[in-house]
Amino acid sequence: LPDDYFDVIIDGCSLIHFNPTQNQYFNQGLYDSSVIINKKLKKDGIFVISSDLAKPTDKESNEWLHPNTFIEIVEAAQFKLLGDSNFSDTDDLFDVKGWLSIGTFAFTPVK
């Protein structure tokens, strides 16, 4: 598919599982996928991600990132978070298993 093609791309909790190794970023697969998605989105496109997350009060791992780590990785791929993000209180997250939560974010490319 050509670059600058899509208006919206949605991820339903898959990108954190693509090559979750620690190379340049805490989850390299999330970063690499975000770089590709940035190229495929139009300048004013939107990238929506709903993903499992570690609660800010719990330890994160390669696949279970803290919300702010998740945001930092996607922003490093030249995205800007749309709206505010404050996950200092775990009530901001949907509790799944006591230690695992779900967060939803919307980003736009910085082109």
**Averaged pLDDT, please?**
85
Approximate strand percentage: 25-35%
Shape: globular
Determine the structural class based on helices, strands and strand pairing: alpha+beta
Question: Number of DSSP helices?
Answer: 2
What helical percentage do the residues reach? 10-25%
Order of helices and strands: EHEHEEE
Structure description:
Helices cover 21% and strands 32% of the residues. It is built from 2 helices and 5 strands; from the N terminus they run βαβαβββ. Strands 1, 2, 3, 4 and 5 form a 5-stranded mixed beta sheet that branches. Strand 4 and strand 5 (100-109) form a beta hairpin.
Key features?
111 residues; alpha+beta; 5-stranded mixed sheet; 5 strands; 32% strand
